[in-house]
Amino acid sequence: MIKHALILSLTAMVLAGCDQVTAKLGIENPALKEAKVDAEGKAVGSACRHSGRAIEDCYAIYSWLPKASVYSGWREMDEYMRENQLETIAPQLPPPEPPGAKRRRPAAAAETETASTTAVPATPTETAPPTATENK
């Protein structure tokens, strides 16, 4: 009897932690993943509309999100902003790069590196002879 109770309690404990175990193993429920991606797309779409970005720009910037959910969020925010007469907010930061894209180096670092690789050794400068107007 005690053995059955112990087995039952251990089974209950293991099953209670299934979500945590599957998360650690990287096994995702397709329905939960779809819901998460859809919610993220709606949030991004509404943020794009609030910042005044065109829907095409949002599609290009956030190409890994489904267009349907981005559009749905953009449309909902558009309706909300029109009803409440809200103005767009100018974005303060540049848009993020999509995942997997190579990160660009800052322009100053790129110029410095290019200049150092293509630089010609410095030669002493010669002074030009004085012109006629300088002699007077």
Bin the strand percentage: under 5%
Radius of gyration: 31 Å
> What is the global morphology?
elongated
Q: What would the average pLDDT be, to the nearest integer?
A: 76
Main β-sheet description:
none
Q: How many runs of DSSP E, i.e. beta strands?
A: 0
Number of helices: 7
> Span between N and C termini?
120 Å
Question: What is the SS-derived class?
Answer: mainly alpha
Which percent range fits the helix content?
55-70%
Helix and strand element order: HHHHHHH
Low-confidence stretches: none
Describe this structure in words.
It comes from Azonexus hydrophilus. Keywords: Signal. By secondary structure, the chain is mostly helical. It has a domain of 60 residues. It is 62% helix and 0% strand. It contains 7 helices and no strands. Helix 3 crosses helix 5. The model has no long low-confidence stretch (mean pLDDT 76).
Search tags:
mainly alpha; single chain; about 140 residues; elongated; 7 helices
What's the SSE blueprint?
Layout lengths: L1 H15 L1 H8 L4 H21 L4 H7 L5 H17 L23 H12 L13 H4 L1
Helix pairs in contact: 3-5
Protein name: Lipoprotein
Keywords: Signal
